[in-house]
């Protein structure tokens, strides 16, 4: 299962979790959503690091530890240069290229960028990519429901030709057509991270014979290394310029951002607007600023990590059972003890732990935190310690009315799109677990020189295991261990994803 070549920072198992729905869709259909009557699988999770937590609560007065806490990264001598592609539209199209994309929003996003690149390599006309319905997230939103399709076509108009739909003569080329039999126009065996030559040798002949080629699966199918520079830059141009969300997602995102910056949604009940100026933060360094915390802590993640999250015996049993049903012993992590996993940094941070990390880094209880997340395993009980440290913690629900959220309700991709948008407008982004969202933000925010904190999972795992650690020692270790994990631009290494590390391929020396 060596699919993770792209993320680099993602432990294999982490990416495996994210790919599971793709790999074993049938397993997910019946189990993807826990039954509504959440039987008590855990004894309400209590703080696990009570000593640290109590100290963190007391020490919260802004101690000015890091005066540059909110500062954006310094100019590091890089600027974007994806714009400067001077490519030419091919005179003759070799035919239509169709791709079918699995995964959640961020995985599909990379697939779209790669599809444009492959169309360019082949001089093909790209059909707007088809987004498969993910068995876990169950969202049937199409490309056009999520992204501004006219903007997409317009930004790329000098690079490749794009059509919204196939012309009538090819209208037979549908998902159902390929699902029901072996078809000559389907490319089914694209290797992971295939080279440009692979496409020229294997897909071009199909285009030439039939005028169309449909690639499925297509996720993670284009190499990051040994690609022509103009192809790399084109991929970044798609990711960072051509892909813009539909207007209603951007409008909701803008509303959330402005409420985070200028008002407090605290005590705001849907319908009864209770907004007030941020007076208490006036004059402080973090005034008007906010942190986005991405917290993916659902049952899949918790179970797959095989870590102990403090919910007691009931929780351990529930997670072990879930592992058995879904993965039938294929979860490699489960052969390690909790201590080993923590030492290796393989356990997603709990809401409590990420709260302690933020507090140790110097964020105090006036910090506005936006929680980008879907359901948290363990619910509010699991989040409450984090909320005690950061009472001004908001999310889509607390900041926007039901009417405002109506258009995105229940649609995982649109909910994720709003979180993506808000995250890209935050002063600081941090994620409690490595994964696609974390990688997408690391890449996009590097591109725009915005601050992203990358938790040192291994260090934190070790610190949290030391039950006698004092707060000052914890804080010092945390600060020391994150000095180089907040603002340094990191250059892409071989095999790593251009979408996580856009320099040097898509960035130039200023
Ligand atoms: C923040 O912490 C300080 C010091 O512990 C306390 O006095 C203050 O009431 C807290 N503010 C909020 C909003 O909880
Ligand atoms: C694509 O078009 C360019 C420029 O027109 C040409 O040099 C190249 O050989 C073409 N490649 C293919 C695969 O058609
Ligand atoms: C735990 O932390 C304390 C400092 O707070 C340190 O003296 C001690 O050596 C640590 N124990 C382990 C096992 O690392």
From TrEMBL:
It is found in: Membrane. One of its GO terms (cellular component) is membrane. GO terms for biological process: fucose metabolic process. Residues 1-34 form the signal peptide. The keyword ATP-binding does not apply. InterPro entries: FucosylTrfase_pln, GDP-Fuc_O-FucTrfase, GT106_glycosyltransferase. Keywords: Carbohydrate metabolism, Fucose metabolism, Glycoprotein, Glycosyltransferase, Membrane, Signal, Transferase, Transmembrane, Transmembrane helix. GO terms for molecular function: glycosyltransferase activity. Pathway: Glycan metabolism. CDD domains: O-FucT_plant. It is a single-pass membrane protein. It holds the Pfam family O-FucT. The keyword Mitochondrion does not apply. It comes from the Eukaryota. Belongs to the glycosyltransferase GT106 family. PANTHER family: O-FUCOSYLTRANSFERASE 2-RELATED, O-FUCOSYLTRANSFERASE 31. This is O-fucosyltransferase family protein. It comes from Escallonia rubra.
């Amino acid at each position: 299962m060596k699919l993770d070549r792209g993320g680099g920072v993602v432990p294999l198992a982490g990416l495996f979790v994210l790919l599971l729905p793709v790999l074993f869709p049938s397993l997910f259909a019946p189990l993807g959503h826990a039954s509504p009557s959440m039987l008590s699988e855990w004894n309400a999770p209590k703080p696990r690091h009570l000593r640290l937590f109590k100290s963190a609560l007391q020490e919260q007065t802004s101690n000015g530890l890091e005066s540059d806490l909110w500062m954006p990264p310094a100019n590091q001598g890089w600027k974007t240069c994806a714009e400067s592609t001077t490519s030419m539209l091919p005179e003759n199209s070799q035919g239509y290229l169709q791709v079918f994309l699995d995964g959640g929003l961020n995985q599909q996003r990379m697939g779209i960028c790669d599809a444009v690149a492959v169309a360019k390599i082949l001089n093909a006309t790209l059909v707007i990519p088809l987004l498969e319905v993910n068995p876990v997230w169950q969202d049937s939103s199409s490309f056009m429901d999520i992204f501004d399709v006219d903007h997409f076509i317009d930004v790329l108009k000098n690079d490749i030709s794009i059509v919204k739909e196939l012309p009538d003569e090819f209208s037979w080329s549908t998902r159902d057509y390929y699902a029901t039999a072996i078809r000559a126009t389907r490319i089914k065996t694209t290797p992971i991270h295939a080279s440009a030559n692979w496409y020229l040798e294997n897909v071009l002949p199909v285009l030439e014979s039939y005028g169309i080629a449909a690639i499925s699966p297509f996720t993670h199918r284009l190499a990051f290394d040994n690609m022509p520079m103009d192809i790399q830059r084109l991929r970044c141009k798609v990711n960072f310029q051509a892909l813009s969300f539909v207007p209603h997602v951007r409008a909701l995102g803008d509303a959330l951002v402005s409420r985070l910056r200028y008002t407090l949604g605290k005590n705001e009940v849907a319908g009864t607007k209770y907004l007030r100026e941020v007076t208490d933060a006036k004059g402080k360094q973090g005034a008007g600023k906010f942190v986005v915390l991405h917290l993916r802590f659902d049952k899949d993640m918790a179970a797959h990590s095989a870590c102990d999250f403090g919910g007691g015996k009931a929780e351990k049993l529930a997670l072990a059972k879930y592992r058995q049903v879904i993965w039938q012993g294929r979860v490699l992590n489960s052969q390690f003890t909790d201590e080993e996993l923590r030492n290796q940094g393989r356990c997603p941070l709990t809401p409590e732990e990420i709260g302690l990390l933020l507090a140790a880094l110097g964020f105090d209880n006036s910090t506005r935190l936006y929680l980008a997340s879907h359901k948290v395993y363990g619910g509010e009980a699991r989040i409450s310690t984090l909320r005690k440290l950061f009472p001004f913690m908001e999310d889509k629900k607390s900041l926007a009315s039901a009417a405002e959220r109506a258009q995105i309700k229940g649609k995982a991709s649109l909910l994720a799109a709003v979180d993506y948008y808000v995250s890209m407008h935050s002063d600081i982004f941090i994620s409690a677990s490595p994964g696609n969202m974390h990688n997408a933000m690391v890449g996009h925010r590097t591109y725009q020189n915005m601050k992203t904190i990358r938790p040192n999972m291994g260090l934190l795992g070790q610190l949290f295991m030391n039950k006698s650690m004092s707060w000052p020692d914890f804080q010092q270790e945390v600060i020391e261990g994150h000095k180089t994990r907040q603002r340094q631009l990191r250059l892409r290494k071989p095999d790593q994803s251009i979408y996580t590390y856009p320099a040097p391929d898509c960035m130039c020396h200023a």
